[in-house]
Write a structure and sequence with these properties.
- With about 400 residues, the chain is α/β, with parallel strands linked by helices.
- It folds into two domains: about 250 residues, Type I PLP-dependent aspartate aminotransferase-like (Major domain) (Aspartate Aminotransferase, domain 2, 3-Layer(aba) Sandwich), CATH 3.40.640; about 130 residues, Aspartate Aminotransferase, domain 1.
- Strands 1-7-6-5-4-2-3 form a seven-stranded mixed sheet, with helices on both faces. A five-stranded mixed sheet has the order 8-9-12-11-10.
- Helix 1 runs antiparallel to helix 3 and helix 3 runs parallel beside helix 10.
- The protein is globular, with a radius of gyration of 22 Å.
- The structure holds pyridoxal-5'-phosphate.
- Pyridoxal-5'-phosphate (PLP) binds next to helix 4.
- Pyridoxal-5'-phosphate binds next to helix 4.
């Protein structure tokens, strides 16, 4: 199997159906699931040539597999990135993207509004290995500037953030990073590669949990790191090759099929999210609705500037305590209670008692997470049913 060049030849939807596909000798229509750990060589000379990188071909699925490669090629096309490598989970991707380029003595600046496990890596894990870290208010560009040190190597953030959808100005942070020769790593899960292209805005590395919109149907875990060819080949590849966070070919195959429907799913989900956000804003007992596409969004100008669509997540505050909020969630019939997101099924989370319960009340307050805050990941159901489900459940408070 040969590796096509990831430069996009056709429009996005076409590339998501055909891009990166290579066929086996059988000429299958649907991409082959090559479920194998290793590969055999016709001759000992071939094995030698492959290990010396003098001949293309696969050796062992920890560092390369045809089904995984097809997924990586298609992801590179989706992101418009020169190169991609897939990993077993989103967290494996975040961990590898950071640790493959950091060493003791380096310093990392990160936005504090961040997925819990990412925050654990930055706050707890990095310092254990002699890498200092500083958390800042990602919305405030002066805070980023003030946190930089001569040894700052990476600026890391999510935008929009979980769960209150705070934005970081990617271009502004990237230009700060360039001044000191640091790199920008963006966790782009909430925006999706359809909604925002961090590399076009100056980021060096983009990371995804493919578990979310890329699978999009709640089936399997996966992660992806995208960046320039040199970074992927020289820094990331040796790290993952020798530490082993590889994506299973089976999961790669599921994710590859997920990409075929990715553009229509995410576009529809974002359209429904915008509709639902507006409908919720007009409902009783709602004190705040957060959606980057709304005119009352605190960073609406930045959202318009850096996001193509405004995402599939909506957050809102119910004018109720935790118990009232739970009565609302328990009364939902279509929307399911789950901490996952990006699924075809609409999912609701109470961040204060689940994803963010480990934070102190002060840290939660800093992020705008209260007892009445709810995060809703909008799925593929008919949006009118979702509007009615939320309206009915609010009467249960
Ligand atoms: C889910 C998620 C992750 C982690 O991904 P897994 O696939 O669950 O390991 C990282 N960052 C963000 C923003 C996420 O939503």
């Amino acid at each position: 199997m040969s590796s096509p060049n990831p430069a996009r030849k056709y429009r996005l939807a076409t590339e998501m159906v055909h891009g990166g596909a290579t066929r086996s000798a059988w000429g299958e229509t649907s991409e082959a699931l090559i479920l194998t750990s290793g590969f055999v060589y016709d001759r000992a000379e071939t094995a030698e040539a492959r290990f010396k990188n003098e001949e293309p071909g696969f050796q062992y699925s920890r560092f390369g597999n045809p089904t995984v490669s097809m997924f990586e090629e298609r992801m590179a096309l989706l992101e418009g990135a020169p190169a991609a490598r897939a990993m077993a989970t989103g967290m494996a991707a975040v961990f590898a993207a950071l640790f493959c380029q950091l060493r003791a003595g380096d310093h990392v600046v990160a936005a504090r509004a961040m997925f819990g496990s990412c925050r654990f890596i930055v706050e707890d894990l990095l310092p254990r290995y002699g890498i200092q870290s500083t958390l800042v208010d990602g919305k405030n560009i002066d805070a980023w500037r003030a946190a930089l040190k001569p040894n700052t190597k990476i600026l890391f953030f999510e935008t929009p953030s979980n769960p209150t959808l705070e934005l970081v100005d990617v271009a502004a942070v990237a230009s700060l990073a360039r001044e000191i020769d640091a790199r920008v790593v963006v966790d782009n899960v909430f925006a999706t590669p359809f909604g925002q292209r961090p590399m076009e805005l100056g980021a060096d590395v983009v990371v995804y949990s493919a578990t979310k919109h890329i699978d999009g149907q709640g089936r399997c875990l996966g992660g992806v790191v995208l960046g320039r060819e040199k970074f992927i080949i020289d820094e990331l590849l040796p790290f993952i090759r020798n530490t082993g966070p590889s994506l299973s070919p089976f999961n790669a195959w599921v994710l590859l099929k997920g990409l075929e429907t990715f553009p229509i799913r995410v576009e529809q989900q974002a359209r429904s999210a915008a509709r639902l956000a507006d409908a919720i804003a007009g409902m009783p007992r709602i004190s705040r609705v957060i959606y980057p596409g709304r005119a009352d969004f605190a960073q609406a100008e930045l959202a318009a500037r850096q996001m193509r669509n405004k995402g599939t997540l909506v957050a809102f505050d119910i004018d109720a305590d935790k118990a009232g909020c739970f009565r609302f969630m328990n009364a939902l019939r279509i929307v399911k209670i789950s901490n996952n997101l990006g699924d075809a099924k609409s999912l609701v989370t109470h961040p204060a008692t689940t994803t963010h319960f480990r934070l102190t009340p002060e840290a939660r307050a800093e992020l705008g997470i209260g007892g009445g805050t709810v995060r809703l990941s909008v799925g593929l159901e008919d949006v009118d049913d979702l509007v009615e489900d939320v309206a009915n459940a609010l009467t249960a408070i």
